[in-house]
Specification:
With 358 residues, the protein is α+β, with helices and mostly antiparallel strands. It contains 11 helices and 20 strands. Strands 5, 11, 15, 16, 17, 18, 19 and 20 form an 8-stranded mixed sheet that branches. The protein has a 4-stranded antiparallel sheet with strand order 4-3-10-7, with no helix packed on it. A two-stranded parallel ribbon has the order 1-2. The site of zinc ion has 8 residues, from loops. GO terms for molecular function: cysteine-type deubiquitinase activity. This is USP domain-containing protein. It holds the Pfam family UCH.
């Protein structure tokens, strides 16, 4: 699995390389590398695959993706051995075998790949062990509450989610700034005062405003009125289609929350929303959740996409929370970066870890 680097014979694991292992790009595989780097830094995932290795010997080929799980597990283990670099060849080959869409040398969407990978590992783990670290770590529940406008009766329905997929609104909510912690507010002020933003606000009305992830959340969770012919609500009390009010709240917050921004539109030629969205280091979801546990999160990893839709590049940033350091993973190149590098990134996917303190 370590491929040519190990065979070269002169590259040995070294604890100084922990957090600093790069992954070789095997022909447009930066989207896989970025996803794997982020997942390998998620504490429950790292702990699980390093300590309770799943035994996949003598497994029959009965429709489950043992090979992909096996290669993923190896990759996580090796990423923490302290090699300066690894070649994820076998893992990449398994992904290509299982999902023909990921054929070699094509540019792919990292978010779709992340879902495919997590779904595949989740179902295989469940099949082998009866439980899954993937669901235990990433899955949350959203409660959808509908109130019939005719009889006022309320019905609720729960939906589970693996990630929150948020559209980027064009308008800023007056509440979003107040939701931020002081440090994120000061980064916001810095971004507002940047020369680029000054120029923008000079030429465009409202151009000086900056969208934050709180604006995306407010937009996503705003109450809806179902009053159009095609979205009327069937009320079982009234036994007819009626207008209704609908509200969504997070009922169970996951240990690790994955948020992705809907930057890509695939219709026809496809296009990309390049709007800068500020990703706070601390996230408080109390406005959007009725979970009775902690509703506070800290940012632990982000995936950045830059460039155009079909020929961009993915880079991961992950935080060593113990030493309070951020690292950038650009395929084989790994370097320590500052918090402002994270603030300035064009974030596509963000990983937040639940915390008691904020
Ligand atoms: Zn009704």
């Amino acid at each position: 699995m370590i491929g040519k680097f190990e065979q070269a014979g002169n590259i040995y694991p070294n604890r100084n390389f922990k957090w600093r292992t790069g992954l070789q790009n095997l022909g447009n595989t930066c989207y896989m590398n970025a996803a794997v780097q982020c997942l390998s830094k998620v504490k429950p995932i790292k702990r699980f695959f390093r300590k309770q290795q799943v035994d996949m010997q003598d497994r029959e080929q009965d429709g489950y993706n043992y090979k992909l799980l096996e290669e993923f597990q190896k990759l996580i283990i090796f990423l923490w051995e302290g090699y300066p670099m690894l070649s994820p060849k076998e893992f990449v080959n398994q992904a290509y075998t299982l999902c023909p869409d990921y054929r070699p040398k094509t540019q792919q969407d990292s978010q779709e790949f992340l879902r495919f990978l997590l779904d595949s590992i989740d179902s295989t783990l469940r099949h082998i062990t009866g439980s899954s670290i993937i669901s235990d770590t990433f899955v949350g529940t959203i409660e959808c509450k509908t109130t019939c406008r005719g009889c006022k009766s309320v019905s609720t329905r729960d939906e589970s989610f693996l990630d929150l997929s948020l559209a980027i609104p064009s308008e800023i909510s007056p509440k979003s700034y107040d939701m931020m912690e002081w440090k994120d507010k000061s980064y916001m002020e810095e971004a507002k005062n940047s020369w680029f933003n000054q120029v923008k606000s000079y030429f465009w009305k409202g151009g000086g405003n900056i969208i934050s992830i709180y604006d995306c959340l407010i937009h996503h969770f705003k109450p809806e009125v179902l009053n159009q012919e095609d979205n009327l609500y069937y009320c079982s009390q009234c036994e007819s289609k009626n207008e209704a009010n609908q509200e969504h709240k997070i009922k169970k917050l996951p240990q690790i929350l994955i948020i992705n921004l809907k930057r890509f539109k695939y219709a026809y030629w496809g296009s990309k929303v390049s709007t800068y969205v500020q990703i706070p280091f601390k996230l408080n979801l109390s406005q959007f959740s009725c979970d009775e546990g902690s509703q506070k999160y800290q940012l632990i990893a982000v995936m950045q996409h830059y460039g155009a839709i079909w020929k961009g590049h993915y880079i991961a940033y992950c935080k060593d929370t113990k030493r309070n350091k951020w690292f950038e993973y650009d395929d084989l190149r790994v370097r320590e970066v500052s918090e402002s590098d994270i603030v300035n990134a064009q974030v596509y996917i963000a990983f937040y870890e639940k915390t008691e303190k904020i």
